[in-house]
Design brief:
The protein is α/β, with parallel strands linked by helices. It is built from 9 helices and 7 strands. A 7-stranded mixed sheet has the order 3-2-1-4-5-7-6, with helices on both faces. Helix 2 (60-69) packs across helix 3 (88-96) and helix 6 crosses helix 8. The protein binds S-adenosylmethionine. Residues 10, 12, 52, 55, 83-85, 88-89, 106-108, 111, 134-136, 151-153, 156-157 line the site of S-adenosylmethionine.
Length: 311
């Protein structure tokens, strides 16, 4: 079966990988003297953006606790955010390091556009530079940052070892590389839910894991040894366990709905008809079984951060 990355909650648009025709215009707000790699259309960027923004909203405190933990030796002035998406890390880093500017890099013009809109709304647009580039291709000139941040993006690289070496060569001597990764997507339902098909969410994850093992093989990797192999010294590793609710906020309901909705596109060929019916009822916001009507939702997930120094 074909992998439908567009339907995976944090998946990458396969149409944009190495796309050499420019069907969509470059981000209107890109600035800085950086190269812009050509890509295909931002297929499904809105769907992914919705999840990324809910992620930012629901997990804001957890993300802030990771930026607070970073073992920087001096406050960085130039930070690079690789695979920045819609700017969750960029904005958190700008808050954490008020004297810094961030160069935010992504393949998606649409994500970069959202990032700039959000940075304008927060009054920090003058501290943000966007670069549209495919990090699987020739790297753009990113200057000599003291801190590079890559959250949930390194596992998307076709050759992560090459990307880690590129970061090593890009960083200022003594600079820090923060890799944040998730082994798995969040769980929202209790294990015995829904009543008519207990364990449904876990079966969806199992189906998704099978696809990811084939198509996103670096997800869930131990990045410590990889970073060491690329020449870094590991300064710290930290795993954050997220366990929110119940009760839950309205944003958690939307986060659960969006995540399961996107997951459905990847698992519909694998689930039994009974499971699919139960999943559709959860996703039907007009149904009495809608996930939005449940009062037992949680957010259960883990994020691991590695702090690696260029010695
Ligand atoms: C799961 S999202 C994470 C976004 C953001 N770092 C965050 O934590 O919210 C992965 C991001 O990496 C970007 N990405 C994936 N492969 C890429 C590549 N080869 N070059 C540049 N960006 C890439 C995607 O467009 C997407 O925005």
């Amino acid at each position: 079966m074909l992998f439908q990355a567009a339907a995976a909650p944090y998946g990458r648009d396969p149409l944009s990988v190495g796309g050499m025709t420019q069907d969509s215009p470059p981000a209107a707000h890109d600035h800085g003297a950086h190269s812009v790699h050509q890509h295909g259309p931002d297929h499904d960027a809105d769907g992914q953006a919705e999840i990324l923004e809910l992620d930012a909203e629901v997990l804001a405190e957890h993300i802030a606790s990771i930026t607070a933990w970073l073992p920087v030796t001096a406050s960085p002035r130039h930070i690079v955010d690789l695979g920045c998406g819609t700017g969750t890390g960029t904005l958190a880093l700008l808050k954490r390091f008020p004297e810094a500017e961030v160069t935010a890099v992504d393949t998606s013009a649409s994500h970069l556009h959202r990032l700039l809109e959000k940075s304008k709304a927060e009054g920090v647009a003058d501290r943000v530079h966007t670069v549209r580039a495919d990090l699987d291709a020739a790297w753009p000139d990113l200057g000599t940052p003291e801190l590079v941040w890559a959250s949930a993006s390194m596992h998307h690289m076709a050759d992560p070892g090459r990307a880690l070496c590129q970061v090593h060569d890009t960083l200022a001597p003594g600079g820090l590389f923060a890799v944040v990764e998730l082994a798995d997507f969040p769980r929202f339902l209790p294990p015995d839910a829904p009543e008519e098909r207990p364990g449904l969410e876990e079966r969806c994850h199992d189906a998704l894991d099978q696809q990811h093992a084939e198509h996103v093989p670096h997800r869930g990797a131990d990045w410590g040894p990889r970073l060491t192999a690329a020449g870094f010294a590991i300064d710290g590793e930290r795993t954050i366990t997220v366990n929110i609710g119940p009760p839950h906020t309205e944003a958690v309901g939307r986060y659960a709905l969006s995540s399961l909705r996107r997951m459905r596109g990847s698992v519909d060929q694998v689930l039994t008809a009974e499971d699919l019916t139960a999943l559709d009822q959860l996703l039907d916001t007009g149904s009495p079984h809608s996930i939005l009507r449940r009062d037992d939702l949680t957010v259960r997930t883990e994020r691991t951060a590695w702090a690696a120094r260029r010695t």
